[in-house]
C-alpha cells in the first residue's frame, strides 16, 4: 500500500490533542499523513456531513474519537442525548468508512460501559454480559454498539474495524468544566479557584470510589500502536495495572500536592459516588506489550496541573 492517510475524528479533544502531540514529537512516520478534525470540520451526527468529510480527505485509516463525552454528573442529566448523539456519530463514521473503502478503523469504547454487577477484574469478553451502571446507560449502550457493528462489518464485508477500551483519561486539553467534566480536570479547576478565593476544596461524593487513570499521552502512544500493529476485531483494554487503581480521595490528594494547595478539603456526600469501581485487567495489553512504560500517576498529574496553570485563559472550562 502507498502512504497512509490517517483521519482522526475528535482531533480537538483530550485524546485527539495528545495523539497530535505524540505524532509531532517524533512518533509519526514519513509514509503517514495525519489529519485531525473537529466539529467545525463536520457535524458527525449528520450522515451527509460525515460522508462529505470522508470524500474530501479520502482516508485509508481512521482513529475515531469524536463523541459526546462527559463526567458522571453530565451523563446523569443527559442519558438520551448521550445515547442518540453517539449512536448517530458512530453509525455515520463506520458506514462512511465502509463506503469509502477505509482499510482500518480504531474506535474508542470506555471501561465505564461494562456491566455494573460483575466480577473483577473486568476483561474484554465481558462488555455485553449485563446492564451498565444506571448513571450513564445512554453513553454505555451507544458505545457497546460500536463493538457489535465492528463484528457485523467484519462478518458481512470483511472490514478491519476494531476498538480500544481506555479507563478514565486525563491530561492537557481536557474539559476542565466543573459541572460537565470528569473528576480530575474538575478537581484541578476547583483547586485553582479555591486557591484564588481562599475557599475550601469540595470533593463530591465520599471519595471512596476507585478508578484506574491513564495519562492521555500514554494512551496516545498505545492508540498509534493499535493502529499499526493490532489486528483483532475484538477490543483491547488500554489501562494501567489493577495495582495502580486509586481512590478518588487519593487522586484528590495528588492534585492538592501538585497545586500546592494548603486550604481545607471537604467531602460533599450529598453528591453521587457513581459506579463504585470498574477495575479492568490489562493482561491482554501486557501479552502484546510487556514492556510498555506508563507515566507515574503523580508525574502525569503534575504535568496536567502545570498545563492548566499555564493555559488557564484558553483551557476548556
Ligand atoms: P473530548 O475532549 O470531549 O473531545 C471530544 C471530541 O469529539 C472533540 O474533538 C469534539 O469536537 C468532537 N465531537 C463531539 N461531538 C461531535 C460532533 N457532533 N461532530 C464532530 N465532532 C464532535 O473527549 P475525549 O476525552 O478526548 O474523548 C475521546 C474519546 O475517548 C471518546 O470517544 C470518549 O468516549 C473516549 N473515552 C474518554 C475517556 C475520558 O476519560 N475522557 C475515557 C474513556 C474513553 P469539538 O472540539 O469541535 O467540539
Ligand atoms: P466516572 O469515572 O465515569 O464515574 O466519571 P467521573 O470522572 O466524573 O468520576 C466520578 C467520580 O468522582 C464519582 O465518584 C464522583 O463522586 C467523584 N468526584 C469527586 N469530585 C468530583 C468532581 O469535582 N467532578 C466529578 N465529575 N466527579 C467528582
**Bound molecule kinds, no repeats:** NADP nicotinamide-adenine-dinucleotide phosphate, guanosine-5'-diphosphate
CATH class of the largest domain: Alpha Beta
Strand percent estimate: 15-25%
**Terminal Cα span:** 43 Å
Rounded radius of gyration (Å) = 19 Å
Low-confidence stretches: none
CATH superfamily of the largest domain: NAD(P)-binding Rossmann-like Domain
Enzyme class: oxidoreductase
EC number: 1.1.1.271
Keywords: Isomerase, Multifunctional enzyme, NADP, Oxidoreductase
Function: Catalyzes the two-step NADP-dependent conversion of GDP-4-dehydro-6-deoxy-D-mannose to GDP-fucose, involving an epimerase and a reductase reaction.
Keywords summarizing the entry:
UDP-galactose 4-epimerase, domain 1, 2 domains, 10 helices, 12 strands, globular, binds guanosine-5'-diphosphate
Structure description:
The protein has 317 residues and is of the alpha/beta class. It folds into two domains: 4-169 and 212-242, Rossmann fold; 171-211 and 244-277 and 297-310, UDP-galactose 4-epimerase, domain 1. 42% of the residues lie in helices and 15% in strands. It contains ten helices and twelve strands. The protein has a six-stranded parallel β-sheet with strand order 2-1-3-4-5-10, sandwiched between helices. It has a two-stranded parallel ribbon with strand order 6-9. Helix 1 (14-27) links the parallel strand 1 (4-9) and strand 2 (32-36). Helix 2 (47-57) packs parallel to helix 4 and helix 6 (183-197) packs across helix 8 (248-258). The longest helix is centred in the first third of the chain and has 21 residues, at 79-99. The N and C termini lie far apart (43 Å). The mean pLDDT is 96. The structure holds NADP nicotinamide-adenine-dinucleotide phosphate and guanosine-5'-diphosphate. Guanosine-5'-diphosphate binds next to helix 3, helix 6 and strand 7. The site of NADP nicotinamide-adenine-dinucleotide phosphate has 26 residues, from helix 1 and strand 6. Homodimer. InterPro entries: Epimerase_deHydtase, GDP_fucose/colitose_synth, NAD(P)-bd_dom_sf. It catalyses: GDP-beta-L-fucose + NADP(+) = GDP-4-dehydro-alpha-D-rhamnose + NADPH + H(+).
